Amino acid sequence: MISAIIPTYNDIKNLNLIVAVLKDISKINEIIIVDDGSNKKSKRVLGKIEGVKLITNARNMGKSKAVKVGIENSLNYSVLLIDADLTNLKPAHIRKMIDSFNKDGYDMVLGDRQNEFFLTKVIGFSTAYGGERLIKDKNVLLNNNLIGPSGYLLEPNINRYYFKKTKVKIVKLCGLGQEFKIQKKGAKGFIKDLKMYFDYIKYLGLKEFLFQLSFCRKFRNN
Fold first, then answer.
1. What is the DSSP letter of 218?
2. N or C: which end of the chain has fewer CB within 10 A?
3. For residue 82, what is the domain's CATH number?
């Protein structure tokens, strides 16, 4: 069985639909929402979602630490990490990831959102740093300190380990997208996205950053 973990910081617009999709998946018997210090309005919405385990951080700690809290409080050996700002999520998307996971014994299945900006898709960025990841053994994440970095460095850090040391499958998720920061926050969101890109390069180094992009371009079509 699988525990689904959704970190959120005031991303509540699509959360009920995402939870409804996850409830439709028989292999998922636990849904954990980690409220990473959201405002009062968001907390009221989160408190009304039924059939989930809600964990509340007293203050905003960043995505990486929110995910770590969720994993540490999960019951199952395998975990599905999923973002709270997805658009058009369908049960078929999750089932496709699980089917690949079960059929071929991958250590990680990485979801490749198809409804993304063209350039980020072409270079492999949206594939490499997407949040939808099915992890076979959560202890690999915890024991190798793969979710220690703060902010949005979770995905680059996971990639650095899994792309070189484990068996990874990338599956296309047609129609799946997300609400981009520029859509949610305008110019401030665009600037925040740019900062995030530079943070990836600064954290990984240019060589590792380019390797992760090339890895995804190569294997997303296999």
1. H
2. C
3. 3.90.550.10
